[in-house]
Please model this.
Amino acid sequence: MLMSVIIVLVLIFAFRTYLRMTKQMCDQNVSMVGRVVIVTGANSGIGFQTAKDLARRGARVILGCRSVDRGTKARDEIISVTNNKNVVFKQIDLSSLRSVREFAKDIIETENELHVLINNAGMFSSEKSYTEDGIDTVMQVNYFGPFLLTRLLLPLLKKSQPSRIVNVSSIFNLFGTINFKDDNHKSFYNGILTYCNSKLCNLIFTIELSERLRDTGVVVNAVHPGIILTNITNGCSNLLYRVGFAVLCWFNNLTDEDGAQTPLHLATSDIGGNATGKFFINCSESSLVSPKTRNEVLRKKLWEHSNKLIRFDESSVQL
Ligand SMILES: NC(=O)c1ccc[n+]([C@@H]2O[C@H](COP(=O)([O-])OP(=O)(O)OC[C@H]3O[C@@H](n4cnc5c(N)ncnc54)[C@H](OP(=O)(O)O)[C@@H]3O)[C@@H](O)[C@H]2O)c1
Model:
């Protein structure tokens, strides 16, 4: 018995070490001077590390955060660490369609160029809740909000081409489903499944958008950043979920900086500038995508459904 326990423990630690040793870092030397980048959810976790690294490379970095306090604190810290004064905070609450529209309007009016949009902000919740727009909060923050933001910023991204969109999705897309009749989860709610569904939508959007953007000079890809103990479960009141997630994170053995590597790889590398409609893990293209992403009819249906739910007038923005 004791021997079996020891063997299991050795295997666990060996696999953990293997994961740590095979983790990839993006090229640290690519300059981003002259590039304008937006990172949403840039005050914490993976988004903060991503924004900091882009500032270190000389980009103009716009931190899109919902809290004025946390956003300005992150801005000040990034400026002090990188000495890049071209880092600004702008408020955006992805759980509000009005806020997303105001943020996008401000960007269009004040920025001449936008080269990289990183849709990083995201949340997890074990409790069902609805936004002021009547949409499931997790679905809106993780999918409908970034969908609207991206659509509104596309004219500027196209004008600034070559440009890139990076959607921070998750390997949990594999467990997602799309229920058009109840994507507000009114009849049944499970926090983990809702999160998976939002990340699947994110990925399907990435692929559909890449098709629609062929030959425009704008590429769009999605990433899984790794399983990392950030603040993502702070809004989760279910202790079992929190402990389960902490164990997974311990097993994966990654830091916030590690989590920023794949978004940074797509934002800065030549590979990230040429690939489109792809999913990346550990700085490499991955096939760990739900088979549902290959269903063209489903992709188009989700596109139309999303337009309708957020009342987006396709003709108002050129695509
Ligand atoms: N950590 C993981 O294991 C993991 C795995 C796969 C994918 N991801 C994805 O990685 C992304 C970054 O997450 P993280 O792990 O770095 O978590 P995090 O530390 O909690 O960061 C999430 C960021 O999103 C922001 N945010 C949440 N709700 C928002 C809203 N309504 N409007 C605007 N911003 C909002 C948060 O702002 P506040 O500070 O104000 O809450 C925070 O800045 C997310 O999309 C997440 O789904 C994470």
Summary: The longest helix spans residues 137-159. The chain has a mean pLDDT of 94. Residues 40-41, 43-47, 65-67, 70, 92-95, 120-123, 141, 168, 170, 224-225, 227-228, 230-232 surround NAP (CB under 6 Å).
